[in-house]
Amino acid sequence: MTEPRSTAEAASPTGERLSAISEAVQHDAPRVVLGVGGGIAAYKSCELLRRFTESGHDVTVVPTSSALQFVGAATWSALSGKPVSDQVWDRVHEVPHVRIGQQADLVVVAPTTADLLAKAAHGLADDLLTNTLLTARCPVVLVPAMHTEMWEHPATRANVATLRERGVLVLEPAEGRLTGADTGKGRLPEPAEVFAFCREVLERDGETAQDLEGRHVVVSAGGTREYLDPVRFLGNRSSGLQGYALARAAASRGAKVTLVAANTALADPAGVDVVRVETTAELREAVLGAAAGADAVVMAAAPADFRPLNRSDAKIKKAEDGSAPAIELEQNPDILRELAAERPAGGQVVVGFAAETGDATGSVLDLARAKLARKGCDLLVVNDVSGGAVFGSPDNEAVILESDGSYVEVPHGSKGALAHAIWDRVAACWRAV
Known about the structure:
Number of strands: 19
Mean pLDDT: 87
Oligomer: single chain
CATH architecture of the largest domain: 3-Layer(aba) Sandwich
Distance between the termini: 52 Å
């Protein structure tokens, strides 16, 4: 460290900036430290800060000196309502380099540069942010953003592995446009998705915060399309919201997540590898491929049951006499049943979804029990979709059936809450093996 400033300097307006930081813990709002690394993506963290403050979180911004070259302290102060400093010597008698981390409920660093990853992995503490990381005893989320070559460098990968082994949540960067004309993996995930991820982490506390650490899970989401011709298809109303909630919840609990997304319009969840597909055949190939090394597979997608036997290469025209073309259908493969039958040895848990309405042959629960036995999966999440319920809604309610005949009722609530209830049952299946 450098030599401390004089008493006059410590009493200056700059020195006073940290007094409010230590006072930030005087009320019950969740206390979040937003660290900002020195990368071009620092400007995106302004939106992340806004989302935290507008949802009632108490946010202390701790930038690096390099970050202040991209976004000035005045901007962070205006958005957070607090003074901002990167110095450990401001208000030194209040010991800010210790207190900020100790009093936080969550520390999130976005963007996290390669330099910050290295310092965090090796326990270096040469500024206020790295000191905060060392003293934090709350969940820590690091959101890397850098060029692809830097992210893929063996030193960076080793640092990430070390941090994850210690329980730090290091998100996977997104793929897309980087600085200049470069494109690749290393882009900061969308601030809305980083915020959603952090809220998931804050809602989990204690021992359950990292209970999926070291697990690889596969989640499918959305609805497949089966094309009649180049412009028309058979499909369904699945929005993908529940599958995305499952992926986000698993990532927030420490899992490595592969999300196979069929025809959704949703932003990629932060920290999740996304594979995009259209048809049931593509969904099957992607899910079976990812499932080979997975600890759990959750089939939340809605594959089309049928597909046209013959697809027209040209748009089907209207007939002059008003007649409609005859379309012959064939069944699609049963992906869930195939997953359950061909799962690798070692306790892989397979979860299916059943959207039922009930009919003359039985109630929703009766039909679901029969489906669970027929598919051979471990858990079946049953939705009553009478009247179009569930589709496109942010809320859900369900019954989670287990292969031994027991079940758990999940009351009406957010799809995120249902997602966590499902992962709780999956974790219980692992413990029972």
